User: Fold these one by one.
Assistant:
Number 1:
Amino acid sequence: MVVSNIFEYRKFHMEQFWQAGLPDAEFECNCILEQVAGMPWHRIQEISLDQLQEMQRMTERRISGEPLQYILGEWEFYGMKFFVGRGVLIPRPDTECLIDLVSEKFRNLRNLKILDLCTGSGCIALVLKKIFPDADVIGIDLSPDALAYAVKNKAYHALDVKFLQGNVMDSCLPENFDVFDLIISNPPYLTSQEMQILQTEVSHEPEMALHGGVDGLNFYRGITRIWKSKLKSRGLLLYEIGEQQGAAVSEILQMQDFENVKITQDLAHRDRIVSGNKI
């Protein structure tokens, strides 16, 4: 059976989203319709009964609070498609400002050595490899689920990034590596209190990718102390941070003798990055 009255079904599903209180009902409905039909929604002339049933299943998952990105199985980051799903942190637009800053600071350099700690889906590592094709890029994560997505994304984009499983808080792990021009990380940084009041969508993401300890700073302390020996002289350590963590993370870097410690804001003028150079 083929259904040709697409716009009526689109309106029906959109109303389900509105009734569920989803603020971007039209956008999300269009995303699901396009995923099911395999083409832009405004070009769809007809879909099958099986496709309609799949759309209803996806709609019900979204209404239950599951992130749209997991339902679609993919999301865009810095103009590139990344596969995502349960067990991996969803790439977010805020993180794109890390890429912009690295592109600016290293634009005239070649053969960079880049290490991405807590790499997750591999989005940062893979985008940087695309921007700096002659760079040697390594991504490390503890989660086998996240690394499976990173490897899948690597294969999809055909980019030569090495993804490794490891605990970045293990003080012995750096012994296996040479020195780097850049160590970059978007580590878990939510506080224990924040973990208790997560939005429904965020609660579906892995706790190990979100929880940064009681004060949210565990990974900043550990990574800065453990990995600073693996930065070249004048090498850059660069973190994504929570918007209230700028002063605290800056102090951590300064206490570990980093210089030129700076806080950079995102497009919404919120503190988003702390960076510093190894002396």
Note: The first strand starts at residue 2 and ends at 3.
Number 2:
Amino acid sequence: MKTQNKELQKKYISFLKNIKNYSDHTCKAYKNDINQYFDYLNESANDLFENKEFVNYLFNNNLSKSTINRKLASINNFLEWASKLEENKGQTFIKSENLKTEKILPDILTSNYINTLINTLPTVTSKDIRNKAVIELLYSSGLRVSELVNLKINDINDNKSLRVLGKGRKQRILPMTDQAYNILSKWISDSRNEFLKNKNNQYVFLGVRGEKITDREIRRIVKSTTGTFPHNIRHTFATHILDGGADLRVVQELLGHTDPSTTQIYTHVSKKKLQEKYKRTHPRG
């Protein structure tokens, strides 16, 4: 049974990668979740589709509700796929329902704060210029970290736009602010060669060894520079665009969200911000 399950997992990951076009990062997350499900099956001596107690198993591992929900979604998708295979014809499974969780609104930086911060970032060294280009681009275009690190030179267009490969390998074209385009151009033309050791490396942002910069290094740069995380800058970008009058559909396109409900959280953020302003400014607030 263990060998059969592992072969099934291998086929499923191949399906995600080659048919669904999921990223390596997403495929790795699915693989880890399925491995944990197999651990549960081994401990409980259950068959593949006996998943009713899996949620309790996850609870016993002291995982948060949001993490449990993500893992349940992974296993639901896996079992649904497996149940449609010829060798499992007639097999059914009970879909695990998500746990109810409180919606946590993302932390948003004020426009004054992030503008002042970016304007005062140093540009003395090549590393300074790279780091400022990273921050400018994250705030200018609302990129995910994975999208930023995978940017290549030919993804940058002269019309101040960039081509991005998002989740599911879906491509979208994003605008850039003048400031982001200017510092990015300065990095590419004046400073990038100081990092470049492999002349064939076409990635925009490089680490000290001349290779593509890592996700971890981007997070370190953002944290040390802004005191927050890259995803909060993405949240900030979306909220500021929405506050400025952009339609929710436009924000959805810019962020690369497939599901409109994912973008909906930013309307809650804007309402919360409006309420806070009201309480601060109304004489009887």
Note: The beta strands are 156-157, 161-165, 171-175.
Number 3:
Amino acid sequence: MRHGNKVNALGRKTAHRKAMLSNMACSLIEHKRINTTLAKAKALRGYVEPLITKSKNDTTHERRNVFSYLQNKDAVTELFREIAPKVGERPGGYVRIIKLGNRLGDAAEIAMVELVDFNETYESGTAKKKTSRRSRRGGKAATKETVSKDVKKEEPLVEDAEVVETPKAEKAPDVKAEEAPKEESEKKDEAKGE
């Protein structure tokens, strides 16, 4: 029976498992990306994400707490100097696991574990969206190109403003469109009369 055992033992005793996860976490912090089995990758994510969260608060106490897990001064220094400022705004989810298939020797599932903010291929492909506020009235925001010529003459655009609204111009009825049906109906009447 399982009896609520929440830790995947990974076929190791406690001391061996902690040492292995510490070494893998140091390698991940140093290289930003490592390949391992899927089970170890999932265990590593649960081990390293709390450490990255602790690194956001750069105090001596937090450095000592993280060092007690990693046992590597260089990894602690890199975590607090390079990784923590880059993940400062992110509320969690610092590690990405990508499945790579099965290993040839024993068919174990292999996965790549990487720090999310250090992958240039994903960052260059997606540009950050500019957040803008929407009006509650439902009016459409206009850009500099869509501002009508009348408004440009009366008021110059303010460069610092986020949204410039233009008044909705009333469309004059098209005179030619109204005359065309009358001419066609007159022609039909004349053809019937002949």
Note: The CA atoms of residues 18 and 158 lie 60 Å apart.
Number 4:
Amino acid sequence: MTLAVSAVSFALLARAGGDAFTALRDNPQISERTIEQLRSVYGLDKPVATRYFRWLTSLATGDLGESIHFRLPVGDLVLSRLYYTSLLGGTAVFMAWFVAAVLSYFGVRASSRNFDRIIEFVILMTASTPRIALALFALALFVATSQSSLQIRSGSFASFIISSFILAAPLIALFTAQANSGLRSAMGEDYVKLARSKGLSEPAVIAKHASRPALNPLLTLFGLSLGGIIGGAVIVETILGWQGIGDLTVTAVRVRDVPLVMGIVVVSTIAVWAGNFVGELLQMANDSRLRAEALS
């Protein structure tokens, strides 16, 4: 899969036209000969197929090349930025799961139409509000507080929490809808009724018996949501100035740094695949039937 994604990405970059040194032609102090020499040094004068084969050969040895713009090893640069995006994304997933768990739990306990309306409102608002609108609102908030004692600086803890919430917004809708539906469905099962007949308290029934079957779909959504987190990070990080892989992607595309773009594509693809794999492991840990199927 990584090979197919890298081939398509490389072809699209080549079709876009230009390269990292195209902008130098606007500088009258730099000659065409100098530009061509630079292109030759980085192999940009070679056919697309030749460049891709060379890049693929280097990738097979674990070398992602050097960033033309930053003059740093691509692997080190991408991994350092991926760490900051992972912090942001991990916090966003935790927020989404926490909100979904709390709302679903109290929704089942309350069995109230008014509380159901609250859940529906939360799902509607978080699903229908684009991340870019939330990010622009947060940016306006940062500017509005810049001259006050409540100043929110880019990179601060407050900025981190706000950025994580913006990244979490669509996940809150997705996880809450699934958790609420799954938990309500589980509460009507025979094993839950049996647990009640044994005299267990309602919180114990929900925590020990109803929550586990309702958890599996959420673990599936966790794996599927990782691609959306990385995509959303491009918007959130660019607008709010968080130095993660999303911000790096925008810079790499803007300056046409092909080695860096390809490094981001490869690392992001592997990260999404690893996240889905972790999600499957968590499902097996939660459901003994899946463990039995995997071992059979």
Note: The chain is about 75% helix and 0% strand.
